[in-house]
Structure formats: C-alpha cells, structure tokens
Amino acid sequence: MEEMEEELKCPVCGSFYREPIILPCSHSLCLSCARNILVQTPDSESPQSRRASGVSDYDYLDLDKMSLYSEADSGYGSYGGFASAPTTPCQKSPNGVRVFPPAMPPPQQPHHHSSAALLLPMIGPRNSCLTCPQCHRSLILDERGLRGFAKNRVLEGVIERYQQSKAAALRCQLCEKSPKEATVMCEQCDVFYCEPCRLRCHPPRGPLAKHRLLPPAQGRVSRRLSPRKISTCTDHELENHSMYCVQCKMPVCYQCLEEGKHSSHEVKALGAMWKLHKSQLSQALNGLSDRAKEAKEFLVQLRNMVQQIQVHLSADKDTKQKENSVEFEACLVAQCDALIDALNRRKVQLLSRVNKEHEHKLKVVRDQISHCTVKLRQTTGLMEYCLEVIKENDPSGFLQISDALIRRVHLTEDQWGKGTLTPRMNTDFDLNLDSAPLLQSIHQLDFVQMKVPSLVPAPPLLHLEECCNHNNSATLSWKQPSMSMVQTEGYILELDDGNGGQFREVFVGKETMCTVDGLHFNSTYSARVKAFNKTGVSLYSKTLILQTSEGLFSRMSATFAGGLQIDAMPSPLEFLQSPDQESFVSPVAWFAFNPGSAHPDIIFSNDNLTVTCNSYDDRVVLGKSGFSKGVHYWELTIDRYDNHPDPAFGVARVEVMKDVMLGKDDKAWAMYVDNNRSWFMHNNSHTNRTEGGITKGATVGVLLDFTRRTLTFSINEEQQGPVAFENMEGLFFPAVSLNRNVQVTIHTGLPVPEFYTSRASLQA
C-alpha cells in the first residue's frame, strides 16, 4: 500500500488530494490548488471569442511554451505563459513538478462590487487559463470556471480508505489536547468519543439516549460502508448521471440527452459500461502484474549478479616457475631478474584492468538495479491504486477516470518491454589472458649458440607499389631479395601504436601481404618486417611511415634506416617529400551511424545515415568511426522536429549509456538544444546557456579538434556559444540522442568550417 501513496498526492501541494477535480487530460488537482495556478488570459482568448472562431474551449494551446527557466540554468522547466503575457519563472512543487505561480490579482476598482462579483474569483476568473502541472497542457475555462470540472469521488474514496488503514488507533475527536484512544463511536453523530468525553458530551439520557453507540473498529467499518454521495452532472447540477456517452467518453444525465450537446451521440447504460470498463482495467492489470512479477525476479537476478561479480574478483594466481640458479652465472641471473621484473610490472597493469572491469560491471548493474527499483515502485503503486479504484461502487465516478487508468496501465506495461528486463552486463569477465605465446617463449629460452651468418634470412624488401591505405585500414606487401639463396619459413610484421610507441607484432605467417584494420584516422604509423627460419631471425626491413586519412587513397612516405628518403614512387600513391616537413593530408572521415551499438529503439534508414526513434524517451546512437587524432567535422540536418524536444549532439566513449540523454553520464560530451536555446552537458552538469535554437531544416555542426584538444558546436554554420569542452583526449565516437519527435541525417567528409579556420588564424 505504501507505493500507492504517490498516486494519492497532488502534484502541486504534495499533500493528499482535497476535493480533487478531473481535468480534460485525465489528471487530477485539488480544487484549492487549481485556484492557485489559474492564469488570467487576454480578452482575445476568452471563451466567447474562441467560440466565434470555431475553436473549442478545451483545445490544447501551443502558445503556452514561451520560456524555459531552470534553477540551475540547466534548461529544464515548464511552460511559461501565453504569447501576450510576460514570462514568469516557474515554481517547483513538493512532488518535484514545476507549476505556475498564482496569477497576479487584478487591481482594485474604486466602486463597490456586488456579492456575486466577490464570490466569482473564488471559482476562477471568467477569462482564465489552467495548465496541468503534469502534462503541461493548457485550456481556457468557460463561464462556469472550475465548477465545470467533475469531482473525482473515486479518488476521494481511495484516499479515505488509505488514511484509515494507516491510522494505528482511532482517537477521540473532542479531546482538546493529546487526544485519547476512542472507546465508542456514535452512529448518528458520526463522532468517535473517549470515555470522559462521552460522559461529558454524549450522556446516556435525554434526546441522545436513542443514539446507537458502537465499538471504534465496528464504527470505522460502518462509516466506510455508508452510502456515498451520488455524483451529479456538471452541466445540470440537479440531475444524477444516468447514461454513458460513448463518443465523449463521460457519464451524462437525462437532461444532457434531451437538450444538451450529447443529444445526437451514441449512449449506453451506465451500469453496463461500468462493468465493461472494470473488466478491461482488470484484464490490463493482469498483464501489468505479470510484468511486475518478472521485474521482481529480474531484481533478484541482478543482485545475484553483483555477488557473482564480487566473487569473480579474486584474480587467478599464475604458477610460478622455480628456477635453479645455482649453475647460472651472474649475467644470466640479471637477465632473468629483468624478465621477472617486466612480468611483475605487466601483472600489475593487468590486475588494474581487472579491477576497472570489476568496478564498471558493478556500476552498470547497480545503476540498472536502481532504475528498475524505481520503475517497479511506480508500477506497484499504480497497481494498488487501480485495485482500490475497482473496489469503488460509484459507476459515474469510476467511468470518469477509467479510460485514463487503462491507458496508463497499458503504457506502463509497454515500458517494461523492449529489453528492460534484460541485464546490461554479464557476470563473466571477458578478459582472457593469452599467456600461451609467453609460456612458449619461456620454454624455448635457451643459450644462444653461434650461428652461421649465411644461414640467417636476409631482411625482406617492402613492395611499395602494392602498399596503400583505404579508410582506416592499411595493406602492406613485402618480398625476399631476389639474390637471397637462404630458405625462409615465415615473416613477422610489426606496427607501432600510431603515437611513436613500442612496436608490436600484428602478423606472423608465410604470406607476403597483410591488411591491418582499425587504425586511427589522421595518424602516423611505423611498420617493419623481419623474416625467420630454424637458424634464426633476420634484421628488420626499412621502416615504412603510414600517414592515414579517410580519402580513397592515403599519402604515404617510406623512410629507411639511416635517414634515406625515397622521393618518387609509382602511382597510385604519392609520397611525402621529407619526414621532417609538414605535409597536408586531408583528415576528413566518411562514416554512418552504427546499428550494432545503438539502443534497440533507434530506427535507421538511408543507408544508416538517417535516424529517429520509436520511444518518447531519449535514446543514444553512435557513429561507426572513432577518432583519437586530427581535426574532424561533421554536420547533422534536422529532418523532423515536433513538439519542441531537446535532442543532443556530441561525442562519447563506446561504453556510454544508451537509454538516457547524451551527456547524463561521464562518458559523453554534448550540446542539447530546443527551439530557443542550447546548453552544454557532461556528467549531468549543465553549462553555458546560449540563445538560439533549432527548427526543421536547421544544421548542427560538431568540430572535434585533437590538435587543440577542444570540442566546438555550431548551428546553421555559426558557432554556438564558446568552446564547449577542452582537454579532449582518448578515443571518441560521434553521438546523438533523440526521441520519436526528432529525425536527423548525418553528413560527413566535410572540411573545417570557415568560422573555425578564421579564428585559428587570428590566434596564430
């Protein structure tokens, strides 16, 4: 029952509903809170003028989203008024929902008002607007004001039963200080008495002698079972609801059918529709109940995963090989000690990676537990509230809210699908230590005997005519010298990390051509080859310098040992003139969005260049290519932009969260923007609010400059705000987050925009 309490509290005051009314959007408000958030509208928005123009009083307005305010300048807020009214900062209710402040009272008139005029503002001004604090939909009140809204009697009954169930003991209602526990309840007076107050206020003589006194528990049941007031028609207050209008989906009275706007509508019996909607709500709850049961089992599974991950933390202990060093000389001891030291340093590095993987797994699973727990609590509260609503015996009151509840139950059930109950992380560690090559080398460790020089293979020759780059792959070819007579068993190709680091083996085999994938764009790699046979290993070939880019072919240079530089080579490759000179190689990159790493709700089209979403929540999609060097610029055009959402654009690590707005975690750097302004966001920190938003057809540019380690954004080829982020280091992927109201298309392979090049030249 405790989870249901959130369903029973007003979104404005945060307390239990008092005299709740039902808005056309199916949400409820306290009557007093509705009075407080009324906003005076211009004369042009009066109900009479709207009828003359053929617009319904209950049409939702698009003009009410005028200004967004945030206490932390984060860009989140609520609708701020009408186009003709000054913008007003919104307030936050105890429930966390942002609402309008009370409308300013009109200036006092010098002449006297009639009593009827003084009572009218208590219900609401004639020309006034009410904005729902939950869905932000607005409507113009008619001449009846707040009296035109039906009372939510079902909600009142549920709140009364809930409060009674929470009371530990019934207290006397007449004690002035520290009410004592009640001993009796008068059925006629409907009052609980303690013994002293009963003797003083309800003596067993005179007119009160005929009253029936009951025990407190029985009196509570009697009060709950007493007939509730029958709801009446909002248009004809003296008439009770008797039928149900199928077209308007609301209970109506006999007079509405005779002379009202429902006279030509299809109607059905109130009792029959009451039973039908109760049956529909019960059926919907069955599906939601199954989802809640699966969610509870899923939470148990996630908690077990946490325990398993913690158990798996214990690292495997490598078997230490004992060496008998008695027969070794001091030089051999020093060499082996150096190998052991290197192995220990590597062990520390590997253990560090294991610990990071462990922390990452725990964080992902715990975040999913937290997210699933909150959603389950909300689902359980909705289920308990719906079950209490089904217990109500007021058909018209039930039918006033049943449609909205059925939609909420189906929507909540849908939210539990789409992979929600699938773990985002497995308990197994995917780090498998490949120690076989090292063990093989250890087993082959032996004293080197003098080799015959003529039996060692000659250094291979790089076949430069067949070496080339395409995208982020490099193909290298080599051959043995034509005059060499020594048999070769295989070759070893080594490549550095593109940053001047140590060489590592990328290929061992008999083939004389190898393609290496996954290189970084606009990076400089060094490659070399050596041959081997049973006798030994040859010297390295000349070093080949690869300058990667994203064109059809990349420019390359061949620098040989001793500084010898080849100046001319056959087509199709063009080589750099000197390794010491700067050479321009266009760092443009062509790529599309990556369906393999995107959230399941993302929809792809146009060869994965265009994306949208089938969810109202923000979902993340990454580009196929990652960048760690160079200057990269791409643009995204807004193909569709409905209802003023907040799409986000930027870059992210590959492990970024996919089910929240880009920039909510520490793995993404983004700019999110609406139709009026934008903000920068990283690790849920919002900065640099800048005026100027997007519409359909707008272009958002993202510029990632690793030479200055900065990230900059633009809108319609104009820089948006200052430099968004600095100290950008590592591997980043282009990223976008959006919902179903947005569709974007990415354009890549673009040159650096003029506003950035001109600024760079001024700084230089």
UniProtKB/TrEMBL annotation:
Keywords: Cell projection, Coiled coil, Cytoplasm, Cytoplasmic vesicle, Cytoskeleton, Metal-binding, Phosphoprotein, Repeat, Synapse, Transferase, Ubl conjugation, Ubl conjugation pathway, Zinc, Zinc-finger. Its EC number is 2.3.2.27. Residues 167-216, 228-270 form the B box-type domain. Residues 456-551 form the Fibronectin type-III domain. The keyword Cell inner membrane does not apply. PROSITE patterns: B302_SPRY, COS, FN3, ZF_BBOX, ZF_RING_1, ZF_RING_2. Pathway: Protein modification; protein ubiquitination. It catalyses: S-ubiquitinyl-[E2 ubiquitin-conjugating enzyme]-L-cysteine + [acceptor protein]-L-lysine = [E2 ubiquitin-conjugating enzyme]-L-cysteine + N(6)-ubiquitinyl-[acceptor protein]-L-lysine. It comes from the Eukaryota. GO terms for molecular function: ubiquitin protein ligase activity; zinc ion binding. One of its GO terms (cellular component) is cytoskeleton. The keyword Methyltransferase does not apply. Residues 390-448 form the COS domain. Residues 10-50 form the RING-type domain. Interacts with SNAP25. This is E3 ubiquitin-protein ligase TRIM9. It comes from Xenopus laevis. The lineage of its organism: Eukaryota, Metazoa, Chordata, Craniata, Vertebrata.
